[in-house]
Specification:
alpha/beta, Rossmann fold, five-stranded mixed sheet, 5 helices, disordered N terminus
Length: about 150
């Protein structure tokens, strides 16, 4: 079922990200839940033309920043994801992405994405086992602002 809709900008100027053909996927969950592995598997299955925007890479490596409210990484994640989408890449944003700190950014990113957007929450730690042995790799998100498919 495709619940995607075109979302016009409030100003009448198209400030959207990506195109009708790009797909945005966000994978959230606690440390050790397999988010990075899931993103890597998606890329492996899809191939070129898929960007992975990793919270850990941008926050820890690029900015060397602690995970704090209003941190510079929040805007950088949005900027990199938008650029990838605008370049025609399907995009996977992955990380803990705590709803309190990252919820507004993710909501805005999805609201302005011209294509289909999906948000998943993986609540289980994998213990570095494969999702097949863990039993449940992920489920649609249940936070009030992340409805799985927009």
């Amino acid at each position: 079922m495709d619940d995607s809709v075109e979302k016009p900008s409030a100003s009448g100027v198209d400030a959207g990200a990506g195109s009708a053909s790009t797909v945005l996927v966000a994978v959230r969950g606690p440390s050790g839940a397999g988010k990075s592995s899931t993103a890597a598997r998606i890329r492996s299955a899809y191939g070129r033309g898929l960007a992975i925007v990793g919270q850990d890479l941008l926050r820890r490596e690029v900015l060397r920043e602690r995970d704090v409210a209003g941190g510079a990484n929040i805007g950088l994640i949005s900027l990199v994801a938008r650029h990838a989408l605008d370049s025609g890449c399907h995009t996977v944003v992955e990380g803990i992405l705590d709803a309190e700190r990252y919820g507004a950014m993710l909501t805005d990113l999805v609201a302005h994405h011209r294509g289909r957007s999906f948000l998943y929450y993986s609540p289980h730690r994998t213990g570095h086992r494969s999702p097949e042995t863990n039993g449940q790799a992920g489920r649609p998100a249940r936070d009030p602002w992340d409805h799985g498919v927009w």
